[in-house]
Amino acid sequence: MNITKENIDALNAVVKVDIVAEDYQEKVVKVLTDYRKKADIPGFRKGHVPMGMVKKQYGKSVLVDEVNKLLQDSLNKFITEEKLDILGNPLPRVKEDFNWDADNFSFEFELGLVPEFDVDLKPKKKVTAYNIIATEDLLDEEVKNIQTRYGKMSSIEAATEHANVTGTFVNEEKEINKKSTFLVNDLKGKKNEKKVIGAKVGDVIELETKKLFEDENKLQHILGIAEEDVKDLAIKVTFTVEEITKTEPADLDQELFDKLFPDGSVKTATELRDKIKEDAEKQFTQQGDQYLLNAITEHLVENTKFDLPAEFLQKWLATAGEKELTAEEAKEEFDKSEKGLRYQLIEGKIMKDNVIKIDYAELVDYAKGFIRTQMAQFGNMNPEEKELDDIAGRILQNQEEAQKLQSQLISQKLLAFYKEKMNFKTKELSYEDFIKEVYK
């Protein structure tokens, strides 16, 4: 057997595999001999079928199988030993004059090669890293929400600005008939508030859905309609008042603090605000980190220039799936996946050059941390180590779940690396301003 590689250019190569009879003949004879021993053909005792008959019936298919096995094993071994970084899988070149009746065979495979490139982690234009803070206004609002959530509810005769109103929304044409509760001051605009304030049980109020609430999601939930139906919805609905209540805010006392933090860690309103601030900014940090990782990814893809073997990849995509794609479909698929492929190559190079890797023990520890957090949400603050090990083992046996956790851990490690090696433009702002700025 002889295997050679010819570089077409920096991104494409052709591997030629020449196979002669001596390479496969012994295996073919062995397989046919085993067939002969097991063959059960009328007129012959088992194991005494003439070899010529066995060759005539099975020889061609056994030859094809054994040559293909030898070809695949040899090609894979060659790629490994030569340390070829390839994209996709080798693509066989079809030969019109190929003949399985010959003794010697020659095969050719096209390879798409991984491009060589450098990654600049010290760009002139810096990525922005956001430090999101919990403002006093946010803390005031959250304290108010807590007091309302744990407050005492009582019925009142007429709706006020801060009343909870329960009733049924109806529009026969759109088949809306939904009982819902809303806070009067959640209504958008003084005109709508004026219609509801002063209403009593049994009153029927006509409202317009357009600009009824600030948030379309709230309108969707209140009316019980599909997401696609709520956008730009402009109809009239009748609302029949069925119940009116008000909530007396809970006092900021030890009874409330102990409900919120049974471990006794909060004893004053100041400590409550500190705790809210700590928890909020922990969540903000997670969201800010996710944005930062996405921003770094976008930056690296945009500023790391290299060519891809696009023609090869489109040919490979055409045959890689369950259904063969047309040339146009394969190009469309390549265009959709090109950005992701570029980042995979950039990420792979960064991890290889900087020896960033994870082993199974790290993955188990990460899975256990994830499980511990989930269990804490259901009140189990101190699970036993054996229980965590057992659950982690079961989760990691699921290939899809294991892949998801591995991806999360890699992202975590990469972000830590980027924070250490890259220079960022830092910006401190409130959560509200962060949302406006990055998701505008």
Topology pattern, helix = H, strand = E: EEHHEEEHEEEHEHHEHHHHHHHEH
Structural class based on helices, strands and sheet pairing: alpha+beta
* Quaternary class: single chain
Tally of individual domains: 3
Percent of residues in helical segments?
40-55%
Number of helices: 14
Please give the number of β-strands.
Answer: 11
Largest sheet: 5 strands, antiparallel
> Beta-strand percentage?
15-25%
C-alpha termini separation: 62 Å
Average pLDDT reading = 93
Low-confidence stretches: none
What is the 3D form? elongated
The Rg value, from CA coordinates, equals 34 Å
Describe the model.
The protein is an alpha+beta fold and 440 residues long. The protein folds into three domains: 2-113, Alpha-Beta Plaits, CATH 3.30.70; 152-248, Roll (Chitinase A, domain 3); 266-306 and 356-438, no CATH class. Helix content is 51%, strand content 18%. The chain has helices at 21-38, 51-81, 136-149, 190-196, 216-223, 227-230, 254-260, 269-303, 310-320, 327-353, 360-377, 385-397, 399-421, 431-438; strands at residues 2-7, 12-19, 86-92, 105-113, 128-133, 152-155, 164-171, 176-183, 204-208, 236-248, 425-430. Strands 6, 7, 8, 9 and 10 form a five-stranded antiparallel sheet that branches. The chain has a four-stranded antiparallel sheet with strand order 1-2-4-3, with helices on both faces. A hairpin with a 4-residue loop joins β1 (2-7) and β2 (12-19). α1 crosses α2 (51-81), α9 crosses α10 (327-353) and α11 (360-377) packs across α12 (385-397). It is elongated and about 100 Å long. The mean pLDDT is 93.
